Structure formats: C-alpha cells, structure tokens
Amino acid sequence: MNVLLDNFPEFRDGFIGTVSITAISSVIALVLGVIIAGFRVSPVPPLRYFGTAWVTLMRNTPLTLLFLIFFFVVPEILFPGMSPFVLGSLALGFYTSSFVCEAVRSGINTVPLGQAEAARSIGMTFAQTLRIVVFPQATRIVIPPLSSIFIALTKNSAIAGAFSVAELFGWQKLMSDRGYDIVPVFIWVALGYLVVTFTISGLFRLLERRMEVAR
C-alpha cells in the first residue's frame, strides 16, 4: 500500500494519462473506422481500394513499429514539434481504426441487401442509405465486437509509456527506477487497467441492453 500512498500524485497522473489516451484514440479509431468501412462497401472503386489498403496496412503493421514511425518519422516530415501524447493517440487510433472498420463492415453485411436496394429505388444516395438505413441496424450487431476492440486498445496504450507518454506503464517504470518491489507496483498498475476496462465493458453492456430488440 505504501508504494501507492507515497507516490499517489504520480499514480494519479499515470491513471489520468491512460484514461485520456484511451478516450482520444477511441474517438479517432471510431470515426476513422466508420469512414473506412463506408469506403470498403462503396460503389466507387478508388474508395474501395483505399479502404482495403488502409485495413491491410494497419492490421499487418506491428503496433510498436507504428509508434516508431509516428514518433520518429512523422515529426520530421509533416508535423514537427507535436507532443508525444498527440502522436501516441494518433498511432493508437489509426491502428485500432482498421479493426473497428472490419467490425463495422461485418455489421453492414448482416443488413439485408433488399433494404439498401429499396432505399436507392426511392432516390436515396449511397451516403443517405448508409446513414439512415444501414448503420442504425448494423450498430446493434457491432457493439459486442467493438467492446472487445476498445478493451484491447486500453491495454495497447501501455506501449505509449515507452515513448514518453505519461500513463500507467510509465508510472511502473518510474517506481522500478526508484527501487520499489516490482510485485506491488504491477498489482496497482493491473488494478488501474482493470478499472478502465471494466468501465468500458459496463458501458457497452448498457448500450447492448438499450439497443437490443425484443424477441
């Protein structure tokens, strides 16, 4: 208990950092994932090719390598001076967006094709069909896999601690450098991650219950 009480400000900052990078990268991943999923089912070939290339590249690139690219290549070429927190959020969000995309695309594929054809027959555009007809039905299907994806994102955020981003894994390294026993340090870090992941799981279970269809 002493390791926490004696270093509570640092632990608090690490916990807040983990929550912050998880929240921001989740928003990035969700927005990008939905857009890329729309590209992948688009009738426009260049958009489909772009969506396929995005998913293939992001899913098959190790996350650590992606962090290295964002921290050591992107600032040199595009955005010099960007903070480590922003770079870490972008790397994590871009990586996770490919998994969100595939979950959303799977949900879209469960919607009967006839509904999309009916929407187009009354003059709806492709974007309107997705937004008004397809996405509302697909959402019920994709909530469970999205829960697992965002829980995995929370755990993946530990990599950001190795790149000067203040979060729980960074706190663990600090405590190790100060000579504390590693076992209680890891216990508190694990409890911090459990709080975040249980919260995400609870929120998604609430969404499932609110959106489920009575049978």
Automatic annotation (TrEMBL):
Pfam families, A to Z: BPD_transp_1
Alphabetized Gene3D superfamilies for the sequence: MetI-like
Regions that span the bilayer: 15-39, 60-79, 85-104, 141-165, 185-207
Topology versus the membrane: Multi-pass membrane protein
UniProt-recorded Gene Ontology molecular function terms: transmembrane transporter activity
Domain ABC transmembrane type-1: 15-204
Annotated Gene Ontology cellular component terms: ATP-binding cassette (ABC) transporter complex
Keyword terms, alphabetized: Amino-acid transport, Cell membrane, Membrane, Transmembrane, Transmembrane helix, Transport
Name the record gives this protein: Amino acid ABC transporter permease
Organism: Streptomyces arboris
Record lineage: Bacteria, Bacillati, Actinomycetota, Actinomycetes, Kitasatosporales
